[in-house]
Amino acid sequence: MKEDSNHEIEEQKHVKEQGDNEVASYVTEETPLEENLSVEEKLPPAVSAFHYAGFWMRFWAYLLDLIVVGSISRLLIYPLFRALDIEVASSGLFSAVNIATALVFYLYFVLMTKWKGQTIGKMVFGLKVISLTDSELSWKTVLFREWIGRYLSVTIPFLYILVAFLSKKQGLHDYFAGTTVIHEHTLMVQTPAPSL
Asked: Transmembrane stretches, by residue range (predicted)?
């Protein structure tokens, strides 16, 4: 009985030595270990990044916002001015109705962007304004972006086309305010280029 147990122990040692030799020969083979990996394992790890909103998505969101602002003006300002017997048909740049409409326009963009990070147009298209420097939008950033920056973008409209060409898809107002617009519910997956 003792001989059987000694024999089993010897046999186990022999099997272990053979296994160690096979592992050693596998590791020391000239074939690189990379060839034993699947295609997915050979790829560098993916990095997720913001999916920046391009020119056309922002354009359609802005058009929808113009419809919303126009509707608010037509539903609130015009009836109020008519009730107060204030002229609504004046064509002067600084007429009461134009000043009130401009105030609604800017307040809409400032308040919606500060409180929600997006206007109704951006909500519909799944877009959101984010700060590139802070975790959330500050009043200073929002006021600069929506008041001064939007004034520049409306006054000189061809500057808005910068969105199509800048890497983070920023308009002039975004660039100076340190903000950008992203797709709210998607990330862009980027894989680093393989090094040579």
From this structure: 59-81, 93-111, 147-166
Instruction: Establish how many alpha carbons lie within 13 A of residue 166's alpha carbon, considering only the half-sphere containing its beta carbon.
Output: 19
**Would you state the pLDDT for residue 27?**
44
- β pairing state of 127-131 and 179-190: antiparallel
Return the number of other C-beta atoms located less than 10 Å from residue 69's C-beta. Answer: 21
DSSP-based three-state secondary structure for 185: strand
Cα 153 to Cα 97, 115, 162, 168, 183, distances in angstroms: 22, 22, 10, 17, 21
CA distance 194 to 4: 58
Bridge-based pairing state of the strands 179-190 and 47-52: antiparallel
pLDDT for the residue 30: 47
Task: Give the chain's end-to-end CA distance (angstroms, integer).
Answer: 64
Domain layout of the chain by residue ranges: 2-45, 49-187
The pLDDT value given to residue 162:
80
